[in-house]
Amino acid sequence: MPALSPTMSQGNIAKWKKKEGDKIEVGDILCEIETDKATVEFESLEEGFLAKILIPEGSKDVPVGQPIAITVEDADDIQNLPANVMGGSEVKEDIPPQQNVKKEDGVQDTSSVGINTSELPPHILIEMPALSPTMSQGNIAKWKKKEGDKIEVGDVICEIETDKATVEFECLEEGYLARILAPEGSKDIAVGQAIAVTVEDAADLEVVKNAVFSGSAVKEEKPIHQDTRDATRSEKTSVKRISPAAKLLITEHGLDTSSLKASGAHGTLLKGDVLAAIKSGLGSTIVSSKEKTAPSAQVHPKTSAPASTESRSSKQTDSFEDFPNSQIRKVIATRLLESKQNIPHLYLSSDVILDPLLSLRKDLKERHNVKVSVNDIVIKAVAVALRNVPEANAYWDAEKGEVFLCDSVDISIAVATEKGLMTPIVRNADQKTISAISSEVKELAEKARAGKLKPNEFQGGTFSISNLGMFPVDHFCAIINPPQASILAVGRGNKVVEPVIGSDGIERPAVVTKMNLTLSADHRVFDGKVGGSFLSALCSNFSEIRRLLL
């Protein structure tokens, strides 16, 4: 049972989305969990098969940390599960003592962060919260409170960089911030890991400070404890299987599987095992040892003499800079790769004459002092086209294998920020005026660049627009942002000469401004007819632009 909110200590299984024996992919929804805040979809972080549901649908008050299901990597292993595995209690007996964390008398066990609970007064351990459904770790961007500060309910204590945005973390209890365990700038803190300690009484501040080790002390003690446990485990177990996620990490960091300790069932090496090894410095040790031993082992195939190391030394002298990815960029990379791999992209392109739009924009500014951008009018034109072709305002329901039509037209706008691409949403765009859309887009773009978007301002959306018209980009094909089924790529306007029929009915050459629109659509939702109908309606909106004012 995961901790899906900062104050969650137990949850209810509202509904299982998978049944025993089902294949599970990374990101699949396993079940719906009713927390103390809302009903949240619980995503799988590993692929495999759902072997056994330990906590049935409708179960109430399941403690955080209690096993709710068992998955296996190979479908053949389902039948090999012990017959006595019937529920959470049986599984709990197999959990090592170090992992079976108990909470008694309302005081949380804080041994993982170097706190002696026997010496602590009444306190609350603040853990890294799951601020989005896909968040598994976060970064401490900034502490808004400092140690010793009084905290009221609703006070923002820190800013946390999640896999979606930088979010303000509000305190749900009043008290005093006794100790900050994860300093400002800390990276990749796992959800559930302690980041601070609060107390009710200001007189208890010094007691907690003396009981909490410094960050360096904690880091130094953890490897010692793990080495002892790993040494014992290595005598009993060996790596027999490797999970897919673990394989990727091993390949990426060049690790030797024989030096890794498997904690999974039947000797399965898990992603967490590899991450623990990397954090303890095992990866760098292996790489450096290979570099030291490789020159003596290299022999030229013809002369049987040691190979020259000139090429290696030249590579080592090449200068480079590691550019760390933000949480947002990591998620974007993963989601877009999944999109190109799993979504059959259909591309449809058309050119529209931009002069009526430019004329409307000029009139709005001169006659009504209303300043709007080309993109604001494009948003309105797309929204009206989606309203007129509702089959295009839809997404693919992978679980049911069918198209789901959306009730509202919510347009996601691609905004470039320093931390990555964000897509704030203009909701019900078909019902708003162009000036209202313009004001909302400016406000959302400022929030996105400042990292201040709220989850409801960027989660959802039924259609995306990516506009590179401000750059010398004539046309491009955008990648669909799942779970949406379509995205429109907008290029820049170019002046071209082409025949135009005048008011007298005679065709003459004229200079017009043309703009390319390219639709990337999920072919499971859009067939040629739906895509063609949408582009036709959109082009009509550009040719008769003033009807958007109705």
From TrEMBL:
> Which GO CC terms are listed, alphabetically?
pyruvate dehydrogenase complex
GO biological process: one example: pyruvate decarboxylation to acetyl-CoA
UniProt-annotated stretches for the region Disordered: 219-238, 289-321
Claim: 4Fe-4S is one of the keywords in the record: no
Q: Which class of enzymes does this protein belong to?
A: transferase
Q: Which GO terms describe its molecular function?
A: acyltransferase activity
- InterPro entries, sorted: 2-oxoA_DH_lipoyl-BS, 2-oxoacid_DH_actylTfrase, Biotin_lipoyl, CAT-like_dom_sf, E2/Pdx1, E3-bd_dom_sf, PSBD, Single_hybrid_motif
Question: Which keywords are on file for this protein?
Answer: Acyltransferase, Lipoyl, Transferase, Transit peptide
Q: What is its EC number?
A: 2.3.1.-
Reading the lineage from the top rank, the first entry is Eukaryota
- Domain Lipoyl-binding, chain residue ranges per copy: 1-72, 123-199
Q: What is this protein called?
A: Dihydrolipoamide acetyltransferase component of pyruvate dehydrogenase complex
Query: What organism does this protein naturally occur in?
Result: Prunus persica
Q: What is the lineage of its organism?
A: Eukaryota, Viridiplantae, Streptophyta, Embryophyta, Tracheophyta
